[in-house]
Amino acid sequence: FGIVGAIAGWFILPKTVNLSKDKSFDLRGALLLGPMLTAFMLVLNEGHAWGVTSPAYIVAAIAGLALLFFFIKAERRAETPLLNPRLFKQLPFTAANAGSLMSYALLFGIMLLMPFVFENGYHDTPLQAGLRLAIIPIAISLVAPISGLLFDRFGPRLPTLTGMLTCAAALIVLFFTLGEARADLLGVMIALGIFGVGQGLFTAANNTAIMAAAPADLTGEAGGLLNVTRAFGISLGIASASLVLSLQLEAMGDATGSTFHATPDDLLAA
Question: Where is the Major facilitator superfamily (MFS) profile domain (predicted)?
Answer without folding.
Answer: 92-270
